[in-house]
Every structure is written in structure tokens, then in C-alpha cells.
């Protein structure tokens, strides 16, 4: 670490202010309540804009992601093609490392950064996750790139607030994803006598039982630990509501509260309807199980749309979707974004990459392939399929909260502890131990 633990703690506190300011959100295009991002928005918007050379800086730009396979790689390929079109003098080098939600990639990246071998740019989740790299002095501010892209004229202020720490923006967002989505097979539901989405967790569990009684052995399909963390966070959100859910990250809601205990109990019941999963199981097989009719439900981010499309699954016939029961009107947010590492071999080439990532053309190409929605507000909704259009509408009107599993709500070290608690619970099924482990994790990280 190149910085002190005091600075690290301060950065995390600033990030928490920015997150809570935005998470009350109705209109994603407006400004949030008072917080870190609001105080700094005038600084970031007034930064001198980056001016790329015509055709690009030249040289190689190594880009590190976890988009190595399937529909995710298709999204990266679409973005890469746009980069090569915009900056033909630059040469893109794909440094992708396979592994769902970046579990393998982040370990490799941490080693490279620690050994002063940074890529030209790397993928990270907007929000608290980036504070780890900021505290370690491993990434540079990109205020000039954001200014060149148009700043708050084209990106929602709520999103800029989430990217801003102590007056600086440290990444350029490529998209926005929603984590609290149930993907379901309408034919399986119809055979079980289910005709509408359940209103809350208790109703959903009752529907799970109907599905099981209809002959489906595993109504709910899950993958490895990170997918289980995502499922658990949506149960927390359902049982706590957005305000108390947000309170888990600033200390106003205790991790041993009755609401959390109820969520742990509901989560245990859900697992009773799920398949047996191993830690390394990735997410695409769960989506495949839904459209093939081997399961009724899966909770996954909306990158699932690209997986359905890749398998020629038809919306309305092979799959449908709705918010996790009890979370209607809430948008569980995460965003992929790209950074400028300190010590990058070709920083101007890296900035060219960031310019493509944040451009309207880049966001259109990437998000149509990825299943997400543009971070920019000036990309036409009618360019996208029905699901993405609905997500764009919801992001403008819903209450926004931040994902645990994808680094928006908590930094990596805290997420690691949450993941350990969830993995332990999957084996032991001990509710009291789960609550204790989550409480200890929060206390360890200052809550």
C-alpha cells in the first residue's frame, strides 16, 4: 500500500456519503442530496477537457476485463470495433481473464498492480469498489476525459456522484446494469398455475412450492458464491426496503437487526428450492436452465438478456422478467467502468480508450450487445430491445440502491468477507452464524 490506512478510511467515508446521497434517488438525471459528489461536481465539470490526437495517440492499449467468453465477450468485441474505428492509430490488446463477476480477474489484477505492472486500463465497478484502488494510489483521476465527453450534460449527476471521490472522477462508465431481476420461464409457471409475479418473499416462496409440486425438482437455479451473494442482497432489499438496506452501509441499520434475520431466514428457504451449486459455477448455465424449462426462476443482472439472445430464446415465450418480489420500484444498481492506472505505458492511448467507452457510439454498440443500458442520457431508447427500454425508464423513475455483490455498495475487502459468510452459510445453513458473520464483517469495516 502506498497510502496510509487513515487515508483509506477517509476515502471510504467519502464514498459512503456519495452513495447515500444518490441512493434516495427518484430522477437519475437530477442532482442528489448533499454529499461528496455534489460538493465536487463543479470541480469535475470545470476540468480542462482532454484533446485526443486525430486517429489516436498510437501504440498499444492493453485493456483488462473479465469479459472473456460468451455474450460478455460479444459486448467487448463491439466496443473494441468502435475503438478501432475512432482511433485507428491505436492498437487494442485484449487482456481479459475469465471468471464470473471478475473473481479470477481481480486476483490477477491485484497482483499486477502490486508489482507495478499495470494494464493500459482495467474494468471496475462504479462505487465503493474503486476506493480500494484510489486508497492504494493505483489509479489516476480522469476529470479531463469526463469533461471532453460532456460531463453532467450527458451523464446523470447521480452517476457522476458515485464516481467522484474528494473532487475527482476516477473512471468512465460504459453502462448501467440492474441486479434485482428475476428471469422466469412462462411455460413452467403456467403449468404450475402461476399467472402473475408474487408481491413479496412469502408469496414467492409459496410459488416455489407450486412449481415443485408441478414436477420441477429445482424451481430456483443458482450458480457459485458470487451469484448467491447477489441473490442474498436482493432478499435483503426485499425484506428491509431501500432506506434500511442503504443503512447497512452507513451504520444506521444493524446487520443483526430483525429485518436482516428475516432476510436470512427467507434466503435459507429459497436455497431449499435450488439446485446444488459449486463455488466456481458461473452464471450462464442458470440462464440456460430457465429457458430450457429445467428451472422456473433465476435472479441475475440484466446481462442475462444477451445470454438469452445468444441462445435464440424469445422474450414472452422462453423467458419473462420482473423485479425480485418486494423490490418493485427499486433499481439495484451497478455499472461497469474503466480506469486510468498509474504508470500505464501509453496513458494517451488509454485515454483514447476511455473516450470510446464514454462516447455515444461506443455505448450504443456495447450495450446493445451486453444487455445493459447506456450510462449516457443522449442515446436513443428506441435503438434497444424491449427489456432495455424498460430498464432505461425504470432507472429514471425508480429508487436507486447499490449492489453489494458487484462492488457498488461496499469495497472489495468487505465484499470478500460477505462472500465468505454466504459461502459458509451455503454449507452450514446456520442462520445465527450467518447473522454473526455479517455483523462481524460490518464492524471490521467500520460499521
UniProtKB/TrEMBL annotation:
SUPFAM superfamilies: Periplasmic binding protein-like II. InterPro entries: Bact_solute-bd_prot1, SBP. Residues 1-23 form the signal peptide. The keyword Transport applies. The keyword Signal applies. It is found in: Cell envelope. Residues 26-35 have a biased composition (Gly residues). Keywords: Signal, Transport. Residues 26-56 are annotated as: Disordered. GO terms for cellular component: cell envelope. Belongs to the bacterial solute-binding protein 1 family. Part of a binding-protein-dependent transport system for a sugar. This is Probable sugar-binding periplasmic protein. It comes from Marihabitans asiaticum.
Amino acid at each position: 500500500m502506498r497510502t496510509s490506512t487513515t487515508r483509506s478510511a477517509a476515502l471510504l467515508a467519502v464514498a459512503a456519503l456519495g452513495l447515500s446521497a444518490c441512493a434516495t434517488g427518484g430522477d437519475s438525471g437530477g442532482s442528489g442530496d448533499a454529499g461528496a459528489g455534489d460538493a465536487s461536481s463543479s470541480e469535475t465539470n470545470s476540468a480542462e477537457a482532454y484533446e485526443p490526437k486525430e486517429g489516436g495517440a498510437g501504440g498499444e492499449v492493453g485493456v483488462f476485463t473479465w469479459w472473456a467468453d460468451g455474450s460478455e465477450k460479444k459486448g467487448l468485441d463491439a466496443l473494441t470495433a468502435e475503438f478501432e474505428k475512432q482511433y485507428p492509430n491505436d492498437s487494442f490488446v485484449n487482456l481479459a481473464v475469465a471468471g464470473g463477476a471478475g473473481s479470477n480477474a481481480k486476483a490477477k489484477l491485484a497482483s499486477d498492480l502490486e508489482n507495478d505492472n499495470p494494464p493500459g486500463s482495467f474494468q471496475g465497478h462504479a462505487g465503493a469498489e474503486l476506493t480500494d484502488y484510489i486508497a492504494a494510489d493505483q489509479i489516476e483521476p480522469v476529470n479531463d476525459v469526463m469533461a471532453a465527453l460532456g460531463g453532467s450534460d450527458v451523464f446523470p449527476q447521480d452517476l457522476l456522484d458515485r464516481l467522484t471521490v474528494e473532487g475527482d472522477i476516477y473512471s468512465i462508465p460504459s453502462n448501467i446494469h440492474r441486479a434485482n431481476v428475476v428471469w422466469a420461464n412462462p411455460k413452467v409457471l403456467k403449468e404450475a398455475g402461476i399467472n402473475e409475479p408474487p408481491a413479496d418473499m412469502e408469496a414467492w416462496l409459496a410459488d416455489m412450492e407450486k412449481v415443485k409440486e408441478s414436477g420441477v425438482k429445482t424451481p430456483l437455479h443458482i450458480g457459485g458464491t458470487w451469484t448467491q451473494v447477489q441473490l442474498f442482497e436482493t432478499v435483503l432489499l426485499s425484506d428491509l426496503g431501500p432506506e434500511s438496506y442503504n443503512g447497512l452501509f452507513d451504520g444506521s441499520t444493524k446487520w443483526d437487526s430483525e429485518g436482516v434475520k428475516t432476510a436470512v431466514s427467507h434466503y435459507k428457504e429459497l436455497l431449499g428450492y435450488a439446485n446444488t451449486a459449486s463455488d466456481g459455477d458461473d452464471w450462464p448455465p442458470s440462464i440456460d436452465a430457465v429457458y430450457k424449462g429445467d428451472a422456473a426462476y433465476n435472479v441475475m443482472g440484466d446481462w442475462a438478456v444477451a445470454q438469452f439472445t445468444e441462445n435464440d430464446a424469445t422474450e414472452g415465450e422462453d423467458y419473462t422478467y420482473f423485479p425480485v418480489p418486494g423490490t418493485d420500484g427499486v433499481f439495484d444498481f451497478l455499472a461497469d467502468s474503466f480506469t486510468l492506472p498509474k504508470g500505464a505505458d501509453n496513458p494517451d492511448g488509454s485515454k483514447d480508450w476511455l473516450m470510446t467507452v464514454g462516447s455515444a457510439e461506443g455505448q450504443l454498440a456495447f450495450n446493445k450487445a451486453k444487455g445493459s443500458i447506456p450510462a449516457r442520457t443522449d442515446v436513443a431508447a428506441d435503438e434497444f430491445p424491449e427489456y432495455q427500454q424498460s430498464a432505461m425508464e425504470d432507472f429514471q423513475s425508480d429508487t436507486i440502491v447499490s449492489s453489494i455483490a458487484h462492488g457498488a455498495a461496499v469495497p472489495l475487502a468487505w465484499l470478500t468477507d460477505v462472500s465468505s459468510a454466504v459461502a459458509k452459510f451455503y454449507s452450514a445453513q446456520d442462520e445465527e452464524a450467518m447473522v454473526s458473520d455479517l455483523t462481524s464483517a460490518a464492524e471490521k469495516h467500520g460499521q
